[in-house]
Amino acid sequence: MKLTLKIWRQKDSKAKGEFKTYPLEGVEGDMSFLEMLDVLNEGLINKGEEPVVFDHDCREGICGTCSLQINGEPHGPDRLITTCQLHMRMFNDGDTIVIEPFRAKAFPVIKDLVVDRSSFDRIQQAGGFISVNTSGNTIDANAIPVNKHDADESFNSATCIGCGACVAACKNASAMLFTSAKVSQFALLPQGRIEATERVLNMVAQMDKEGFGNCSNTGACEIECPKGISLENIARMNREYLKASIKG
Question: Which family does it belong to (predicted)?
Answer without folding.
Answer: Belongs to the succinate dehydrogenase/fumarate reductase iron-sulfur protein family.
